[in-house]
C-alpha cells in the first residue's frame, strides 16, 4: 500500500519542494486500466518535459458497466489520493468517468481536472457532419458525446454504438484474436450503414484497436482519437496557469489497484518497455 503527502521523497527527489516549485509537480493521469496509455503517449509527445503519475483502477474495471454513483465514488477516491501525493493537474483519461463524474468532482478539488469528451467533440465537428461514436455502455447511455457535439454544431448528425466487449478484450490482450474482429465488425456495421464520415473513439482503450477498426471502415471515414486533443488541452491549461515544467521530467510512476504484473505485461505493447508497477489497495473503498 502507498500513501504519502511527501511525494518528492518517495520518488527520490529530495532537492526541491512542490509547494515552492509547483511547476515540477507531476500530472496525474487515470483510467480503469491500460486505455489511458493512449493519452499518456500523447502527453509524452506534446509536453515531454512533464512528470506523470499514471493510475489504473484495474481492480474495478470495466467502468463502462458501472452506475453513475459508483463512477463518481471511484473518481473521488482516486483524486483524493492524487491530491495527497501532490499532483498539479489531473487528466481523466476515461470517457466513462468524463461523462458521468467530471462535473461533480471538479467542484470538490482545487487543481484542474481535464476530461476527454469536450476535446473529442470539438475535434469531431471539424472533420464531418455525420459522426459515429463507439463507446462503453455507460458513456453511450449518457449521451455525453452526442450532447457535446450538437451543442457545438446543431446540424451535425450523431449515431452512437455501445461496445461492451471491447475493453475486456483489450485488457486481456486479445486485440489480434479473430473473435475481436468479429465483434468490431458487428459494432461498426450500423455506423457504416449510416454512411458516417467521422468516427470518434468514445473510450481511451479503443485506439489500441486502430489497425482493426481502420481496416473495417471505408477509407473516407475520418477517425478522431480524443487523446490527441486532450494532451493539447493540457498544454494550454498549463500555460494559462504558468505550471509548465522547464526541468527534466522524472520517470513516469505507474500505480494500479489490481495485479501489477498483469498491467505490466499488457502495457508493454503500448509503452515499448516493461514498466515498474506499484499497487494500492482499494478494497475498503478508499485508496490507501
TL;DR?
Substrate binds at residues 31-32, 63-64, 95-96, 204-205. By secondary structure, the protein is α/β, with parallel strands linked by helices. Helix content is 43%, strand content 15%.
Describe this structure in words.
43% of the residues lie in helices and 15% in strands. The protein is of the alpha/beta class. It folds into 2 domains: 7-115 and 229-279, Rossmann fold (3-Layer(aba) Sandwich); 117-226, Rossmann fold (3-Layer(aba) Sandwich). It has a 6-stranded parallel beta sheet, sandwiched between helices. A 4-stranded parallel beta sheet has the order 6-5-7-8, sandwiched between helices.
Task: Summarize the topology.
Layout: H1 7-10, E1 27-31, H2 37-46, E2 52-56, H3 68-85, E3 89-92, H4 95-100, H5 102-106, E4 113-114, H6 117-127, E5 130-135, H7 137-142, H8 144-152, E6 157-162, H9 166-171, H10 178-193, E7 198-202, H11 210-216, E8 222-224, H12 226-240, E9 253-256, H13 260-271, E10 277-279
Parallel strand pairs: 1-2, 1-3, 2-9, 3-4, 5-6, 5-7, 7-8, 9-10
Helix pairs in contact: 2-12, 6-8, 6-12
Binding site for substrate: 31-32, 63-64, 95-96, 204-205
Protein name: Glutamate racemase
Function: Provides the (R)-glutamate required for cell wall biosynthesis.
Amino acid at each position: 500500500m502507498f500513501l504519502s503527502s511527501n511525494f518528492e521523497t518517495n520518488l527520490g527527489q529530495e532537492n526541491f519542494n512542490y509547494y515552492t516549485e509547483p511547476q515540477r509537480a507531476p500530472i496525474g493521469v487515470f483510467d480503469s486500466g491500460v486505455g489511458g496509455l493512449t493519452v499518456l503517449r500523447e502527453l509524452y509527445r506534446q509536453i515531454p518535459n512533464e512528470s506523470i503519475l499514471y493510475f489504473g483502477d484495474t481492480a474495478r474495471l470495466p467502468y463502462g458497466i458501472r452506475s453513475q454513483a459508483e463512477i463518481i465514488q471511484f473518481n473521488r477516491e482516486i483524486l483524493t489520493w492524487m491530491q495527497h501525493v501532490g499532483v498539479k493537474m489531473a487528466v481523466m483519461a476515461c470517457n466513462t468517468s468524463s461523462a458521468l463524474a467530471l462535473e461533480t468532482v471538479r467542484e470538490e478539488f482545487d487543481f484542474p481536472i481535464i476530461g476527454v469528451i469536450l476535446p473529442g467533440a470539438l475535434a469531431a465537428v471539424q472533420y464531418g457532419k455525420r459522426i459515429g461514436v463507439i463507446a462503453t455502455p455507460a458513456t453511450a447511455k449518457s449521451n455525453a458525446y452526442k450532447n457535446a457535439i450538437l451543442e457545438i454544431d446543431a446540424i451535425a448528425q450523431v449515431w452512437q454504438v455501445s461496445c461492451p466487449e471491447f475493453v475486456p478484450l483489450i485488457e486481456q490482450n486479445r486485440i489480434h484474436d479473430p473473435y475481436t474482429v468479429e465483434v468490431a465488425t458487428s459494432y461498426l456495421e450500423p455506423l457504416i450503414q449510416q454512411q458516417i464520415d467521422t468516427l470518434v473513439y468514445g473510450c481511451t482503450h479503443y485506439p489500441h484497436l486502430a489497425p482493426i477498426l481502420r481496416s473495417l471502415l471505408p477509407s473516407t471515414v475520418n477517425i478522431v482519437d480524443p487523446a490527441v486533443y486532450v494532451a493539447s488541452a493540457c498544454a494550454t491549461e498549463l500555460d494559462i496557469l504558468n505550471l509548465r515544467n522547464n526541468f527534466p521530467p522524472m520517470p513516469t510512476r505507474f500505480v494500479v489497484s489490481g495485479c501489477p504484473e498483469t498491467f505490466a505485461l499488457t502495457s508493454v505493447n503500448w509503452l515499448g518497455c516493461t514498466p515498474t508497477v506499484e499497487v494500492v489497495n482499494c478494497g475498503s473503498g478508499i485508496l490507501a
